[in-house]
Amino acid sequence: MSILAHNNLIGKRRKIVNNAIIGVSFFFLVVSLIFFALCATKPYMGAVLSFGEHGWLIESVDRHGTAFSAGIQVGDKPLEVNAQSADTFLQRFEKSGSIRLIEQLKVLQPNGQILSSEINVDPQSRKSFFEIISWFVLSAAFFLTGFYILSKKPDNTAALILLLSGTTLSVALSSTLAAERLIPISSYPAVLAALIGPWLLLHFFLILPDERAWLRNDPRILIIYVIPAIAIVMYPIIGYANGQPLPEFRMFRLLSYGMGFLGVVGVAIYNYVRAQLPQTRQQMKIVLIGCVFGLVPFVALNAIPAAVTGAVVLPSDVGLAFLSFIPLSLGYAVVAKQLLEIEVVIRRSFIYAVITIILAMLIWAAFALVFSSGIAPGFFERFILALGLSALAVFLLGPIKNLVETMIDKLFYKDRFDYRKTIQNLSTSLSATSDKEVASSLIIDAPMSALNLAGASLFIATDTGSFEVGAARGIFATESRQRDLLSLIVRRNVGKEFPNLADTPNPDIAFVIPLVAADKEVGVLFISGKTSRQEFNGSDFYLIQGLASVAAVSLRGILIAERDISERRRHEQAILNAKQEWESTFDSIPDLICILDADHNIIRVNRAMADKLGLSPAQTIGKKCYELMHNTDAPPESCPGFSSGKACGPSSEIARCGCVYQINISTLNNDGKSSGRYVHIARDVTAVKNAEAEQQRLKEKAELSSRLAAVGEMAAGIAHEINNPLTGVLGYAELMLSEDIPDELKEEVKVIADGSKRVAEIVKRMLTFARQTKPFKTSLSVTELIDNTLELRNYVLRTAGIDVVKNYQDDLPWIVADPGQLQQVFLNLIVNAEHAIKKTGHTGVITISAKKISDHLRIVFSDNGPGIEPEVLPKLFQPFFTTKSPGEGTGLGLSISRSIILEHGGSIDIASELGRGATFTIELPLNSESENVLLDPVTTVSRRTNSNIRVLVIDDEISIQRLLRQSLSDQNRIIDVAGNAQQALELIRSSPYDIILMDLRMPGTSGMALYREIISQKPEFEGRVIVITGDALGEDVQAFISKHRLEVLTKPFDQSAVQTMVDRVLSPNPD
């Protein structure tokens, strides 16, 4: 079992036991109240018969009983008892020698008179009723105290035992009264409660001290209940006969009582003498005071007079009320937090009692003097006399109080009188010093010497809320002890500090005294016990409280003064630091800063400005700012002076520095008022201007890239939708051209084929613009490519009167590029220049130059057309932007051209000036990697002629299925077609195929997923699958094709390309 589970089990058991004790106590309370209620209406006989030399006689008569009311007296001879003759009834009790539980009695008095009394007939006397009330009050004191203490200390074992003890004694009192009144079953609870009550008190005193807290839950303590348990068991066996308790058992019962009460007294004395904590001794002192207040009046005024004279000074009912102090003192010892104040209360009561006696004596002496003089004052004179004497009493109260207090302190509290001087001396000494260390020594030396302490330590509060050691003496002087005390400050229970005893685990600590002034804790004082091991008395507490008050006030003043000095020093240092920080900050700012007066004279400059001017800061003082910055004799026009206090324009160039600066002038205010000085700040904005321009260029570039990406996505989708039907149109046109048809029809079919190829080329350009296809790069001559492109437009240029001037550098290196794409760019620029020149209405010139610049090849196309407006230039490369009239252009030419050049790792820029034409500059890299050069995809492969080749075509387009079936059905090939993945897999499982042509995009299962499924079932198809696509290849598709090294047939395709690719796949591996 884990420790936690064990502790939980113990806690549950303890809770069950506590609840059981509370339940039994409530039961005892109910029983007690029932007995008291029954007794309230039933009288009792109150006569005791005893057997002696003269036979049976009345031994005693209780004045509360009906026998006393009937006149029965001691010495009367019983004639009849309980409706039987006395001789017959009393014969059974001769052995016991006495009988007291009598219901009916008839006696013969010495004078011959016969008297009788019967409790069922005679009324209850008033004295008997008041006896019940007094016993109920005493009983209520026990059980009410128990329940009140339990409400304050619900988890305190001592409180539970005190509750059970109180209710048990309440049962003993109530059941005893009930037994005297012959109430059934009342005698047994009376004996049981009377037997167990003293031992419960013993239990209470054993567990009350905190030193024996371990005993509260120790089952061995139940051993003390062995004796009362034996007595309880023996009572029904030998203690009761014929309805009457036997004398022998009464002796045994008294022995149990005596042992229990002796144990209580012994433990209480032991608790007081051997207590380790002062609190335990104070608890026992409170109990002792309660017992004195309860027993002394009862014994002195009731018990002793009754035993000596047979009469009492106070009625027994009143005497019983004093016993209520006993349970009250027990409860107070458990819950009181200010135990030490009891001696203060006694002292004050003593003082005011003496004052009252003195004032009373003076007033009565005055009255006696007046009346002894023979004067007979009337009502008015008596009223005036009483009023005057009352005023005199009020006037004399203060002096008499001081006099009496001094006399009592000297006679009975001499230590307190001396301690008062000690407090005054400490106050005087502390007022003469402002040093915290000296004050700390004085504070702990005072109680050390006055009380002869073993040790004392003072901790002073800091501004951070922690504590530091002020001074330490005796046993607390070591560093380890000081660390323990410092940790105790954090863990202390504020509710149990002085003037109560310290509740600490360290027996050397007597008190933890908070030093509080103006509701703020300024320190904590620890004091040990006395070296003589004597306990602290009320005078000692008076001294400690006085010293603590004086020390708290003095420490507060010293701490405030010390804080003020520290604050002043910190303030001065803060000013110095602020000055240094301001100067350091002023000189650290990279901006050029100076402070000027109203005449532009420099008062101060920062290090940056001095360095920029090539002068020291001292050399600039008194100079005109414009003389040093602008080399002028007057402020520049861009500087309006100091009237506005605003920036002097967007920028201004300082001639001496050669940079562009943003100039700002503001008024230097002092407490919201103008000081007549100005702050001149010059910030270098050259880099900022350049950065802003670059940022604008990058922003425009990013916006263009975003538009290109959007158009590219659209182009890719359009390409797929066009290429599928276009493949059928072009394929069937080529099939018709390959057949023997009339020439007229052949020309018309050729127009269809050429138109299809033209649409295919447009789609290809759109995909190129979208950068979705990989360029076919090869090594080429740029000048040769330019010349070939010019040949395409030679006729148009010549008829438009446009000359072309070529400036080529000799021996230009070849570059690696896609000739088709690059020719498209050149053709687009030539056509744009041609259209621009035509707008002027006269002939023009297009100049084309090419030369090597470092590791780039620069190609420039210029024209002498009208030029381009500045606001149009940033938009030229945007998709679908055109300056041409509707129907003359798509707005994609320059966008595609720019995309192609960027794909080749180059750049294209434009420069134009209105009326002077436009210039396009292209730069292409010369160090392109050779691996980017692809083989010509149209590689001639000898066709296989073997017959009976089985081909499976997988495509959801029926027109493409028929086209491929017709295209590949020659040479005795067997062609099967499937429209989806499920049909294809069924055919592959049922028939062997030599090659598979498969579309990548199909409804349901994609081409890539179908390929994986085919290879998983038929691994031999690895390398014998051709994929067909009608749109751009995404990165995932390109990675898939590259990984599996698949042949790709792009829609629309011609018949020769299909035959060539099928033959290449079917041809044996040359390796």
UniProtKB/TrEMBL annotation:
UniProt-listed PROSITE patterns: HIS_KIN, PAS, RESPONSE_REGULATORY
EC number, as in UniProt: 2.7.13.3
Organism name: Dehalogenimonas etheniformans
SMART domains: HATPase_c, HisKA, PAS, REC
Signal peptide: none
The protein's name: histidine kinase
Gene3D superfamilies listed in its UniProt record: 1.10.287.130, 3.30.450.40, 3.40.50.2300, Histidine kinase-like ATPase, C-terminal domain, PAS domain
Keywords carried by this UniProt record: ATP-binding, Kinase, Nucleotide-binding, Phosphoprotein, Transferase, Two-component regulatory system
Record Pfam families: HATPase_c, HisKA, PAS, Response_reg
Gene Ontology BP annotations: regulation of DNA-templated transcription
Catalytic activity field: ATP + protein L-histidine = ADP + protein N-phospho-L-histidine
Gene Ontology MF annotations: ATP binding; phosphorelay sensor kinase activity
Upper taxonomic lineage: Bacteria, Bacillati, Chloroflexota, Dehalococcoidia, Dehalococcoidales
